[in-house]
Write a structure and sequence with these properties.
The chain is an all-alpha fold. It has 14 helices and no strands. Helices cover about 75% and strands about 0% of the residues.
Amino acid sequence: MSKKIKKYSGKRVIPGFGLTLGITIAMLSILIIIPLGSVLANAFKTTPGEFWETVSTPAVLSAFGVSILYAFIAAVINCIFGLITAWVLVRYDFPGKRILDGLIELPFALPTAVAGITLSKLYSTTGEFGEPLAKFGIKVSYTQLGLLVALIFIGIPFVVRAIQPVLEKFDGQFEEASYILGASPVRTFCKVILPELRPALLTGFGLAFARGIGEYGSVIYISGNSEKDHTQVVSYIIMQKLNYLDYKGATSVALVLLIISFILLLLINIIQVKQARRTNNC
């Protein structure tokens, strides 16, 4: 038996390291590296003066401010409600749990344009949610509040799916020990559970934040795209410049957006590496 184990220990499910590595590099090049490289190449065609003139205009600065601010607020809200949702899905059993768990990923599967149209209709002054809110003087569609609703919708699955696996693997003996030592449920959560969830929570926050900054489809219909009302997002600025055939301006703005997203993803990877080291040391 030991000879058979040694004989097949070197086998691979997918044979051929060179072939599979070549396919991997080719797919990454076609789908990621070359498109991103084209953005950099087009951005480098502009002079530093033209680049600064494009990205420092009031409309572009306002759009960056709106995108970053509301993506941040939406990510914070998603962290709160995403943690609660993940806790309910992991810690409790109830009828329809599997259905609810599947619905969490609906924003991933639903085309963003469809989500934007649905949300704008739902929260309009004649919509099912918008009409009751309008009676209290709260307008959602074509306002900053509508922009926030759309960003929350597309970002919450990132937080829930980041926290769920950590909660599922969390050892309940730590909670029991905390209760035995006299800690209250709130103190147990803050001192025992939350530190274990913090890296996953930060990862979900970063992913939701990065997605929200560059979101286009779901916010384009519900935000109103008004510079005066501060509902114009940076992705709309890029699309607007492309419509006017201003490729240099579009790539300049896209480059800044790319750098911001890259920094966020780099921070997320650092958090994940530190968490992996911490887990291995434990």
